[in-house]
Design goal:
Layout lengths: L1 E7 L1 H4 L7 H11 L3 E8 L3 H14 L2 E5 L10 H9 L3 E3 L1 H13 L13 E3 L3 E3 L8 E6 L2 E6 L3 H12 L8 E10 L3 H7 L11 E7 L2 E10 L2 H19 L3 E4 L4 H12 L3 E5 L5 H7 L8 E6 L3 H8 L3 H7 L4 H14 L4 E7 L14 E8 L2 E8 L4 H21 L2
Parallel strand pairs: 1-2, 1-3, 3-8, 13-14, 13-15
Antiparallel strand pairs: 4-5, 6-7, 7-8, 9-11, 9-12, 10-11, 15-16, 16-17
Helix pairs in contact: 2-6, 3-4, 9-14, 10-14
Length: 409
């Protein structure tokens, strides 16, 4: 079975929002043995949506549409589906009652505008929404099965997993795995696994890079899901064997989660001291559920005065070497570890740009200080890119320095 995922929304085609639904659906469909041939995106235009649905239905056996099921004038997917089917919209009394009950439980009266959400193309099937007011729709357009789901990610995911996935049957097994690496460039990592990336190989291996994180995508196919999973696991294991400590984790494990797991295993605590990253290291660390087990807190000391008052950085260090220096990063980490009584402390200082650089200290110059049970070390890095990229790369690099240090304990 071949599938096409169609995303609807002006905010998507204009770049004001990122389409995460298509990525999720591709992964889930792959798990069901269904290959996604295309992602298509269309604006909030009834005729354009209707034409896109008809075109996708002619090219694939399965079409999954997300978005455009809200109660406002620009939500036109249900009308477009009706047009593609050549039918009228009709009121589904059960869905109307469910929407009214949704508002009643929250102590509100259903606005008249929400009634449109209970309108379903004649002959189509409404899919209940247990997390919102927009029912999904299941229909047949030509020979293709078409499922229309809300654009709100958590509603879409719950509806797909509960009501759509059980109806689908693929033609075999298709398994997607991810291996996340940090510390070397994409070309260097690819060179180590070059033979695994040959076109036509099963499993197929490709790479994606975001802020220095190189992710190897492993896609395995087989006659059954079990067979595909075994093939994928063999390739993942070989990648990990070859890349060693460059591998941060697999699948959903992030760099902060990997470092956090090592801290938890060591029963150690962490504190952070940040200048140019403005708290981003702490934000990434605390994005991991359960991070309170090891993260004590952090200090954002942007001004030199606060580096001295809050982190005990000696004024002479700042006067002689400057705030962006190996010496300042080390002093920030040591002061943070002492002040917050942590086992480990990370410090970041640098020039994120776009201005503020010089010949000796250009934009993108970053120092990471790491203070731990065995002493303090500082690392120098020079990154190129936007202010946003430099800050994110610096924060991830700092966390990776901690991860590697914990692995060496």
């Amino acid at each position: 079975m071949k599938a096409i995922v169609l995303s609807v929304g002006d905010e998507l085609v204009s770049g004001q929002a990122v389409d995460t639904n298509s990525a999720y659906l591709s992964r889930r469909l792959g798990e069901l043995g269904i290959a996604v041939a295309e992602h298509r995106t269309v604006a909030d235009d009834q005729q354009a949506i209707a034409e896109a649905i008809a075109s996708a239905a002619a090219a694939a056996e399965l079409v999954v549409v997300t978005g455009g099921l809200g109660p406002t004038a620009d939500d036109l997917t249900r009308q477009a589906l009706a047009a593609a089917l050549g039918v009228e919209l009709v009121l589904d009394a059960d869905r109307a009652a469910e929407i009214e009950e949704f508002f009643r439980r929250r102590g509100r009266t259903m606005p008249p505008a929400n009634r449109i959400q209970a309108m379903i193309p004649a002959g189509a099937e409404a899919i209940p929404n247990t997390m919102g007011t927009a029912p999904g729709i299941a229909a047949k357009v030509g020979k293709a099965g078409v499922y229309v789901l809300p654009g709100v990610p958590h509603e879409m995911r719950e509806m797909f997993d509960r009501s759509v996935a059980p109806r689908l049957r693929g033609g075999g097994g298709l398994v997607h795995r991810l291996v996340h690496c940090f510390g070397e460039g994409e070309s260097d990592i690819a060179a180590r696994v070059e033979d695994l990336m040959h076109r036509g190989r099963n499993p197929a291996v490709g790479t994606t890079v975001v802020a220095g994180m190189v992710t190897l995508r492993v896609v395995a196919s087989g006659k059954t899901h079990t067979q595909a999973a075994e093939l994928a696991e063999q390739t993942v294991a070989e990648i990990i064997r070859r890349l060693g400590k460059l591998v941060v984790g697999t699948d959903e494990q992030t760099l902060p989660a990997a470092a956090g797991s090592l801290l938890r295993q060591a029963r150690a605590t962490l504190a952070t001291a940040e200048s140019c990253t403005g708290g981003l290291v702490g934000q990434l660390v605390t994005s991991v559920p359960g991070s309170s087990d090891y993260y004590l807190g952090g200090v954002v000391a942007y001004a030199n005065r606060l580096k001295g008052e809050l982190l005990d950085v000696p004024p002479k260090t700042l006067d002689r070497f400057g705030a962006v220096s190996e010496q300042a990063a080390s002093a920030m980490a040591e002061g943070c570890r002492k002040r917050l009584a942590a086992d480990w402390a990370l410090a970041v200082t640098g020039i994120a740009g776009p201005g503020g650089g010089s010949k000796d200290k250009p934009v993108g110059l970053i120092y990471v200080g790491l203070a731990g049970p065995k002493g303090t070390v500082a690392y120098k890095h020079l990154f190129a890119g936007t202010r946003e990229f430099i800050r994110l790369r610096a924060a991830l690099t700092a966390i990776n320095c901690l991860r590697l240090a914990l692995l060496d304990q």
